[in-house]
């Protein structure tokens, strides 16, 4: 970790970058891909997609696309969505005892209409006492550390945000992840990192900073500028999962297992080529996990295409790649399309305008 970082997951985490939870993207196949780029000996936390606490109690865990996990995955901190004690209690107990969670994250940032109408997700940011109560009801039903992921809120009011986070801290939150965009901004515009700094200065629990990290440099900058204890990366990690390797190299970690003696991709062309290899690997993993019974080729291909849609803006001619993967109708056709496309040199850009 960086100097002065506060301990996360009872001090087990020794690496300052982690993956952001993303619906439709942070499933087991993608987590496996990214873990293959984690430097040897590095320990970080891993999210799931957002899991609805009203569904988890009756679901067949580890068989749905959202709850599938691989037996060798460790340090999983699934994210739940909820606001009532009974479903939250049943969910966290099952996630801890049956599924192997090592922490529980509560979503207080989801801005979609459905979450607002059910009073969970970012709706909880409108009532700090009730939000603190949701933390309390989670903490009393699990022995695991409980964290909260939130955004700048509806009103972009820093005084309110600080009071809000202090209440979560008093209610027993072990750490908080802040994505400093307002509800209205959704994921557009710029994340206001100064809010992360202001919060980090006045609370005692660790703060994970999130928003707009696109390259390894940005992760270090985010931690330097805000003093946050870890950087969480979402969209950019879909494009450059080797960002973990690049960060590890700078911190003196060994190369990821199986990549000993190699350096992390560094130039635009090296990154372009690695993007091709990583997509090929993800295609294989996606087919293996989602592309056949009990799921279907259609589901697997939809997941893969969504990944390409999110990650391709960092690639010159990314729109062409996306069009080709949409046109291909089977896993093998997508594989051929990737081979053909990456048969020519492709260049990745460091930073790009984030639109979705
Ligand atoms: C497709 C997509 C789905 C997302 N789903 C979730 C979610 O389920 N829970 C959550 O807390 N944040 C979710 N987010 C927000 C990310 O976790 C993150 O806060 C946001 O993308 C900003 O980080 P970034 O700039 O590194 O992408 C989602 C983001 C994307 C792009």
Description:
This protein is α/β, with parallel strands linked by helices and 356 residues long. The protein has 2 domains: 17-256, Aldolase class I (TIM Barrel, Alpha-Beta Barrel), CATH 3.20.20; 268-342. It is built from 13 helices and 10 strands. It has helices at 28-35, 85-99, 113-117, 128-139, 158-171, 193-202, 216-226, 235-239, 243-251, 268-290, 297-311, 318-327, 331-342, and strands spanning 17-19, 39-40, 50-52, 79-81, 104-108, 146-153, 175-182, 207-210, 230-233, 254-256. Strands 1-9-8-7-6-5-4-3 form an 8-stranded parallel β-sheet. Helix 5 crosses helix 6, helix 10 runs antiparallel to helix 11 (297-311) and helix 11 (297-311) packs antiparallel against helix 12. The longest helix is centred in the C-terminal third of the chain and has 23 residues, at 268-290. The chain is globular. The mean pLDDT is 95.
């Amino acid at each position: 970790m960086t100097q002065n970082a506060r301990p996360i997951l009872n001090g087990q985490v020794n690496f300052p970058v982690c993956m952001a939870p993303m619906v439709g993207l942070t499933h087991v196949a993608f987590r496996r891909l990214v873990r293959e780029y984690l430097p040897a000996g590095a320990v970080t936390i891993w999210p799931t997609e957002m899991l609805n606490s009203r569904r988890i109690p009756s679901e067949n865990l580890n068989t749905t696309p959202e709850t599938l996990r691989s037996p060798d995955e460790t340090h999983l901190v699934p994210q739940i969505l909820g606001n009532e004690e009974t479903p939250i209690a049943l969910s966290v107990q099952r996630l801890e005892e049956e599924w192997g969670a090592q922490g529980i994250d509560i979503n207080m940032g989801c801005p979609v209409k459905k979450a607002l109408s059910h009073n969970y997700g970012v709706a909880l940011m409108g009532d700090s006492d009730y939000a603190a109560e949701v933390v309390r009801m989670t903490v009393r039903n699990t022995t695991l550390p409980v964290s909260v992921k939130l955004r700048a809120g509806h009103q972009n009011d820093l005084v309110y945000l600080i009071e809000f986070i202090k209440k979560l801290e008093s209610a027993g939150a072990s750490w908080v992840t802040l994505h400093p965009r307002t509800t209205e901004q959704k994921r557009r515009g710029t994340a206001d990192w100064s809010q992360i700094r202001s919060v980090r200065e006045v609370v005692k629990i660790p703060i994970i900073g999130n928003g707009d990290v696109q390259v390894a440099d940005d992760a270090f900058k985010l931690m330097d500028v805000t003093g946050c204890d870890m950087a969480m990366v979402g969209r950019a990690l879909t494009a450059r999962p080797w960002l973990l390797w690049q960060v590890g190299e700078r911190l003196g970690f060994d190369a990821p297992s199986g990549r000993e003696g190699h350096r992390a991709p560094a130039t635009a062309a090296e990154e372009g080529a690695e993007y091709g290899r990583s997509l090929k690997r993800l295609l294989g993993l996606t087919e293996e996990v989602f592309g056949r019974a009990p799921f279907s080729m259609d589901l697997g291909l939809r997941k893969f295409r969504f990944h390409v849609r999110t990650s391709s803006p960092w690639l010159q001619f990314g729109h062409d790649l996306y069009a080709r993967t949409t046109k291909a109708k089977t896993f093998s056709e997508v594989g051929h399309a990737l081979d053909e496309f990456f048969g020519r040199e492709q260049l990745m850009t460091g930073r790009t305008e984030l639109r979705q």
